[in-house]
Amino acid sequence: MSKIHVTTKVNGDPVEFLADPRETLLDCLRDRLGLTGSKEGCGTGDCGACSVILDGRLVCSCLVLGVEAQGKAVETIEGMAQGEDLHPLQRKFIEHAALQCGFCTPGILVAAKALLETNPDPTETEVRYWLAGNLCRCTGYDKIIRAVMDAAAELRGEAA
Amino acid sequence: MAKDEYREFRLVGTRPDRPDGLDKVTGRARYGADMTAPGMLWGAVVRSPHAHARIVKIDTSKAEALEGVKAVVTRADLPTGLTGEDWDLQENTLAGERALYDGHAVAAVAATSALIAQEAARLVEVDYEVLPHVTDVDAAMAPDAPVIREGAADPTVPEGMHPNVVKYFAFDHGDVEAGFAQADLVMERTYKTEATHQGYIEPHACLGQLGSDGKGEMWVCTQGQWFIRRMCAAVVGIEAAQLRVTPSEIGGGFGGKTTIFMEPLSLALSRKAGGRPVKIVMSRSEVLRATGPTASASMDVKIGMKKDGTITAGKATFRMQGGAFPGAPVDMALYCAFAPYKMPAVECEGFDVLANRPKCAAYRAPGSPMGAFAVESLLDEMCRKLGIDPMDMRMKNAVREGDRAAYGPKFGSIGLVEVLEATRAHPNLSIPLGLNQGRGIASGYWFNHGGETSVSMAISEDGTAQVSVGTPDIGGSRASIALMTAETLGIPYEDVRVNVVETGALGVNEPTHGSRATFASGKAAVEAAQHAIKEMCRRAAAEWGIEPEAVEWVDGAAQPAGPNAGKFPPMTIAEIAGKMGSTGGPISGHHESVPGGVGESFGCHVVDVEVDPETGGVKILRYLVVQDAGRAIHPSYVEGQYQGGAAQGIGWALNEGYIYGEDGRLQNPVFLDYRVPVASDLPMIDTVIVEVPNPGHPYGVRGVGETGITPPLPAIANAIQAATGARLTELPMNPPRVLAAIKAAKAG
To answer: Most buried residue among A7, B43, B63, B555 by CB atoms closer than 10 A?
Structure first.
């Protein structure tokens, strides 16, 4: 099957790649662009390990075709820190030991960032329901929820 | 809470950032599927759609003719003559005469892209003659059950058993019948648990390369690179030392990544494709259909109890299927089942049974959750009948140091009583419950494990230290090993770098399994550091012109051991390291052993549930884990193990389970249908770390990874009975089953 030329923006940078029309955005990020921070845990949109922001919307990149990224803007885990400065969510995940194996972590961080951008002061229940599409098998979610709540407080300017 | 018989530590017990944290929050950490290599091909596996079928013919010609396909392998490409476990591994890697379960690999292809490989896999034509199958353990033992493999039984199996029973296991002590005669209440029940999957979020992935010279390399997500090396070498017929295996970061394992599945196929494909590296990444449905879930179990338990709660005797018969190969953890299940209790008499027997399901693998405290579900459920029901507080019963019968374990050996220092005391003291136990709510309590046990361990430590020129370990870091073991090494050397935590290394760098290491990484690699790292300290003291002594015995190591520096040793200012590790080249060369320490002194681990969980009487849905209101860690080196990651174990146990109890259709096919091979707990299913999980130090470890570590998955199964069943009056004896306790039990309890 002949490939399609795709021009898009990833983490603010213009990129282009050739995509087989059957390839997912996740495949293209990982195998065409070398951005392997987004993970494939299921390929069916159930685990959230591939979460990215596509034109401002949180999506499972395994459910989006690579060719659909044409002319859009994609944000991935690789764009979350600004140079040496980690996003508060990233810092709080380390501080709270909110990761064990770390495989689900990129997707959860991307999803949590999307939450805090729409709801800067979520309740615990809101965090739990927002992240219900991101499976973590190691932590039992406890420390993840605490890290997200703590990062939200910091972003609101409240002392931890 | 902490029963501290040790001095205060500078670093042990603190909560610094983990060394691999930055890589893991930025997406930089490289997992199994994240590696590529020049000239790389992609592999795909052809799998049986049948639960049991004779493979009449495999025609690979169409696949081979597809442009971009570089290799196709079938069993004919693997060596013959393997026996025992090696044969099992090879047969599971690629079916021989018969496909033994839905998802069993029958061929594999390698091509220049993943899409071409998948297309080629579809073009491999396999003629099957479908055979009768069986997937349930009790059905597999019935006289009319299809025979999965003639002659697979080992000599332990009594005459007259069905050929699917491949191992028989029994132990006893005391007079069980006399015990039952003394009891005021004797109860007997049968329990069933379904197979569950470890459910690690990272599917298996590897990148293997093998040349015609028999030399190979592999990058793979695994809990144990030496296990992968030995098993792959056997399956493809090369020498173990010629295969160099590098572990990637690992996206969860829980026991399921201690063995091989498609890894040898990457090597066999690579060899056939002229040595080009071949990457194989499993899909989720491949993971669920064809890697190693845990066994399913059918268990009869009988217990005698006096009016005051004293247990007089216990009897258990466990039947487990672990797929089409021997290896169900029926022995472990029986060992653990009565472990928290003083048992005057026990009689246990177990049957390991073949069925047309994937070959089971270890899953967090293998066997222990099933045994606990049966025994802890029955004990709770008996307490209820006799009007005894289940905490009182647990305390009255609790094993202590010097007691004989139900399975034979005498316990050394153990912390069950301390765990039960801490549980009883926890505020969660006095929170009042409302309508349709109930509280359940259960205990759990795991042996913990030592295992072959090899660690190497080297002092750098600036006095910092690097530690090479062979146990992949799944949940913070780099941090715990760095803490112990830095504590021992007397240097900052940040001055130690712990590297998980490839098979070429160390002697054989067992995997990160059995809750052993922080115990065994940690113990070996401390030994290695002490070896280096001795050498550094010797170097300081030589410079000062005094005897090495007159030098001691304090706070990261050598100093004279007393006023008689001479007056010299302390010589720091950085000073000693800075001149190592002129004082005798590199300074390092090594340690190789199978460490003894393993400390057993007990836990007790308390769960509050609310049951919806309309739907049978069970909501976890609050959850408490109390467990003896021996010593929590990094308490945050100990809590994480407790919480994660509890969450997996909750999933096993309420939702998870393999569902096989009449056709023997797995009906729920995706996360949508194999539903693991999500964030909105769970509350915060409270933890109490009890510390009864293990005298067999320099810092008192017991190992904390596994016990936590055991109590949730019975604790939740006990809580459901408390809430509804209905007793569930079969897992998972999903809404239809709970609803049926409530209706039956009302009717009965």
So the answer is: B43
